[in-house]
Amino acid sequence: MTSTFHSIETAKRSLFTQTAALSTTGHNIANANTPGYSRQVVRMTESIPMAPFAFLRSTSPGQLGTGSEFVSIERIRESFLDDQFRKESSSQGAWDVRFSTLGKLEATLNEPSDSGLAKVINNFWDAWSDFSQDPQDITNRKIVKETTLALTDAINQMSRQMNDLSSDLTNSVDLQASSINSLLSQVASLNSNINKIESLGDNANDLRDQRDYAMDQLSKIANVQIVPLETGYQVTLAGQIVVAGDVVTAVTGATLQAGYEGGTLTGGETFGTLHSRDVYVADYKNQLNQLVNTIANGEVEITLPAGSVLPEGTILNNIVYSNANNNRTLGSDLKVSVNGINGLHKLGYTLAGNSPTAGGDFFVSKDGSPLSADNVTLSQLIKDDPNYIASSIRTAGTGTDEKIVAGNNSLALLMSGLKISKFDFGAGFSKPATIDDFFTSIVGQIGVESKEAERQVQNATLLTEQVDGSRQSISGVSLDEEMSNLIKFQHAYGAASRFMTTFDELLDKLINGTGVVGR
After folding, report:
1. What is residue 338's three-state secondary structure?
2. How far apart are CA 133 and CA 148, in angstroms?
3. pLDDT tens digits, residue range 130-147?
4. CA distances from 460 to 195, 222, 267 (A)
5. How far apart are CA 29 and CA 428, in angstroms?
6. How many CB atoms lie within 10 A of CB 7?
7. Cβ distance 253 to 195 under 8 Å?
């Protein structure tokens, strides 16, 4: 025979179970907008039924139930979707940075526009064209000087901006390493705390949510691999185990660089940062240097007009032109290759001094190091005195009586004609091209790369949102569903309370209302 108070115990268990369900529902509602939170559910089960006591088998029918109890509170989470989300998040993080960097490079080039480098280059050629109309006019000479300085200043500024962008990206890698280390420390600490709690038999749901959220954040910075072990998550980043239980191996900018170069760092903002610096910025900086060196010293074919008088000792086509060889004056047009504007400038004569003086290098390095976009500038002689700009390739007289034909504009015409001449840009450029065509190819390349990066960002964002949507449909909190559960558990609690009240009244009748006959 069962206990007189059996149903009171059944009602009590029901109240405890429904209270846990109500509290968990309230916890879900409270965290509906908490990043990384997974909804939790109470797992209910029937409590062990009470068999009638007997030596063999009771003659009482059946087993009497003892109510319900909850065996656990579990979070709803799908690890497969977590892995998918982190992969897509890493891809999105990488493309976000790459697209941002290309946008900054586009802003640096500032093309097409009325104030970009293409306009400055065009002004440079126009200045030589105007100069050829009156090479003796000091105003025209000053215009050539100033437009050249504007050109070199624009190139210097563009190069500085690329250098600054490269430095910013390097600094970003160091900052990302700090963020990674902070998240790794969180994961290691959570590993330890989760182990402590779950060793007692409970589910550390909220701590597990925090750990997974930290891994979500980490995956956007760098691609990571996770192996769940008894001691918690083992995290591998850039080919190195960085978290094992509660032990953290800190990463540095050098560690991330090594992982990128070794092919183990393949995603996340850090990969995008390193790729942007070492591929995009480096490539466009190299092309800008190539542009400068080609303008100054790149091989280009010209035709010297008949009657030109070459400076003493000039070597063209492996022939020395000198008074001794009596061949300084050209009897016919001569097609030759010269080394850029500098090479052509040396074939003419300046107006400085009384005797014919050959022009020197037009473009020089500011600090004497190899010519580049960082240091290219106009010759200091020309800066100080525009008469050092060579314009004539004609002289009159011989020996000590040789004088420059100051009004001759042959060299100035050849200089302005370089605008449509095709230069040899060396390795990496399939065929000779004009300066304008080369710069246009740079602008076109960055436009195509930026458009592709934009497309990749859109795709990566869409995929990340789709996976996160699938994940939220499983793990996210639906307020409508929680409100429905709230009403369901509330009614169950009310019914259990009513059951306890009813049985309390029965016991009261049994105890106080029976066995009183004859009193």
Report:
1. strand
2. 18
3. 999 999 999 999 999 999
4. 35, 15, 12
5. 61
6. 20
7. no
Residue 73's CB is within 10 A of a number of other CB atoms, namely 17
Confidence of residue 426 (pLDDT cuts 50, 70, 90): confident
Contact 413, 132 (CB under 8 A): yes
> What is the DSSP track for 377-436?
EE-HHHHH-GGGS--B--EESSGGG-EE-TT--HHHHHHHHGGGSPB---TT-SS-B-HH
Residue 340 near residue 295 (C-beta atoms within 8 A): yes
3 state SS of 202: coil
C-alpha to C-alpha distances, 481 to 117, 129, 153, 286, 370, nearest whole angstrom? 61, 78, 65, 59, 71
Alpha carbon distance 399, 264 (integer Å):
72
Which residues make beta-bridge pairs with 48? none
Q: Take residue 289 and report the two structure tokens written for it.
A: 């240097």
Distance CA 374, CA 363 (A): 13
Q: Three-state DSSP class for 329?
A: strand
Contact 298, 317 (CB under 8 A): no
Helix (H) or strand (E) holding 236: strand 232-237
CA nearest 80: which of 186, 279, 226? 226
Question: How many beta carbons lie within 10 A of that of residue 155, not counting itself?
Answer: 24
In tens, the pLDDT along 363-399 reads: 999 998 999 999 999 999 999 999 999 999 998 888 7
H/E stretch holding 32 reads none
448: exposed, middle or buried (Cβ count in 10 Å: 0-12, 13-18, 19+)? exposed
Q: What is the pTM of this model?
A: 0.88
Whole-angstrom distance, CA of residue 82 vs CA of residue 205: 16
pLDDT tens digits for range 340-369: 999 999 999 998 877 888 999 999 999 989
- Which residue, 205, 181, 183, 180, is CA-closest to 193? 205
**CB atoms near residue 435 (< 10 Å):** 26
Dig out the tokens for 128 from the structure: 């030589």
Q: pLDDT value at position 52?
A: 53
What distance lies between CA 181 and its chain's CA centroid?
Answer: 19
- Which SS3 state, helix, strand or coil, does residue 263 take? coil
List the structure tokens of 390: 């060579």
Q: Where are the beta strands (DSSP E) in 132-191?
A: none
Please tell me the distance from the alpha carbon of residue 82 to that of residue 215, in angstroms, as a whole number. Answer: 9
Contact 441, 371 (CB under 8 A): no
Query: Is 178's pLDDT higher than 90?
Result: yes
74: three-class secondary structure by DSSP: strand
Q: What would the two tokens of residue 392 be?
A: 């004539």
Euclidean distance between CA atoms 351 and 115, whole angstroms: 33
**What's the alpha-carbon Rg for the chain, to the nearest Å?**
42
Task: For residue 56, give every residue at least 6 positions away whose Cβ sits within 8 Å of its Cβ, in sequence order, or none.
Answer: none
